[in-house]
Amino acid sequence: MLIWTRRGRAALRTAFAALFALVILAPLAVVVLAAFARSWNGVLPGAYTTGHLRESLTDDRLAALLVSLQTALAAGLLAVLVGTWGALAVASAPRLLARVADTLLHLPIAVSSVVVGLSMLVAFNKPPLLLGGTRWIVIAAHTVLVTAFAYSTVSAALKRLDPAYAQVAGSLGAAPPRVLFRIVLPLLMPAMSAAAALSIALSLGEVGATIMVYPPDWRTLPVGVFTLTDRGRVFPAAALTLTLLATALVTLTGLGRLGRRPGAR
Amino acid sequence: MTRRALWTLPPLLLVAGFFVYPLTLTALQSGGAWTRVATSPEFGRTVLRTLEIAVCATIGCLLLGTFFALVLTYAPFPGARAVARLIDTVLAFPSYLIALAFTVLYGSAGVVDGLGIATLDFIYTPAGLVFAEITFYTPFVMRPLLAAFGQVPPAQLEVAASLGARPWRVVRQVLLPEALPALAAGGGLTLLLTLNEFGLVLFIGAKDVTTLPMLVYTKGLVTFDQAGAAVAAVAQVALSLTVYSLYRRVAR
């Protein structure tokens, strides 16, 4: 529909293919090619190597990958916990409080990550809570940034949930904790696993807050990529980025399996 | 206070302790440095540049994203679904991926430079940054638009066309009014995210293109002027919150 002539459609598709290839596909393809490039002076790399990728899995780069993974899992777990708790609490709170709490829980989405990093540096390098120079300041910053997204995901799903299920369970005599654990949480499971996936993906790629607060012994992988890029070593940087994306993919696929338990939908 | 209200307390305390309290301290710390930092010509230039880049990138994303979403919905081709799925995946990628690709392609020792074509160091200009941001943020506009177009009944378009409306007129008078909320929501989110963008700017590392988040970083970490960084941070937060409150209003 909309475009009825065959020639019109063909022209439109050609324009789409050209623009889409240039804007979306080319950058992705370039990173993949660069990860395997030994030298690149023509249209395509002159010679290929798997050396950069193998190097990505050695010594301090492997350590950075593990640091990123641990940070993302910790931040993701905390984010789903706090986000789900927040969504459930806001849904049953009095109206005015619910609006204030909803705004506050969403707010970190609006603030630049580098500002969150700076504020952590300002607040937690002195008592009452000394986190500066430890891994906990990195994990705290990541958690603050991704919890807002987890909350947003779960509370949107909760709004779409038919309240009849919980009401019926309640009218049949199920106590509130039983309704929560047997009815509401299982129904929210897909949203919670989506929230976990989003949180982990965002945390794995986070660089703005991390670069402000990271201590030498807790360097995440994106910081390592930046160090390499900054020194002009773009091929190893591309290889490192590729390992990050692969790690994200594997983690999220595994998580997707967990989220699709029978009866969860 | 009722017991139900008490349940909101734990998450709210966490947000207060780890988000509101640090930001408040930062704002307090900026106190003495305002006259020194905010009156410098560098600061004014940076604020304008941040706005300019964000607005240009958002307009570019809206145009390109609308075109992409229109073709995907109304002139679909084999593989259009895979493209839509790719768009969903790209949303979760870190933005510096694009910066990395641009550095490989157009950087000072990049591929295009090696081909002997004078690139005039395109990526180190504001226009280059705008292009990079359009590349990364176009999917953020496409996703709500694809959802909105999917809900317009095809019969409406067919009736308009059978009454003699040309495709362009159908798009303008039937489709775009229907998709206006999605367009506003996608555009608002993109404006907010481009204002806050840091990874791309950091990784490209153009010396002459400074945005507010970049100023927070250089003042805070490179020159160790934490009060100055706090001023830039407060200005950044004010800008973001203004756009965010507008976005919340249109996204409802």
From TrEMBL, chain A:
Its main location: membrane. This is Putative 2-aminoethylphosphonate transport system permease protein PhnV. Belongs to the binding-protein-dependent transport system permease family. GO terms for biological process: transmembrane transport. Signal peptide: none annotated. Pfam families: BPD_transp_1. The keyword Glycoprotein does not apply.
UniProtKB/TrEMBL annotation, chain B:
GO terms for biological process: transmembrane transport. The chain crosses the membrane at residues 12-31, 51-74, 86-109, 115-136, 182-206, 226-247. Pfam families: BPD_transp_1. It is a multi-pass membrane protein. GO terms for cellular component: plasma membrane. Its main location: membrane. The keyword Nucleus does not apply. Residues 47-247 form the ABC transmembrane type-1 domain. It is found in: Cell inner membrane; Cell membrane. The lineage of its organism: Bacteria, Bacillati, Actinomycetota, Actinomycetes, Streptosporangiales. The gene is phnU. It comes from Actinomadura macrotermitis. This is Putative 2-aminoethylphosphonate transport system permease protein PhnU. Belongs to the binding-protein-dependent transport system permease family. InterPro entries: MetI-like (IPR000515), MetI-like_sf (IPR035906). Keywords: Cell inner membrane, Cell membrane, Membrane, Transmembrane, Transmembrane helix, Transport.
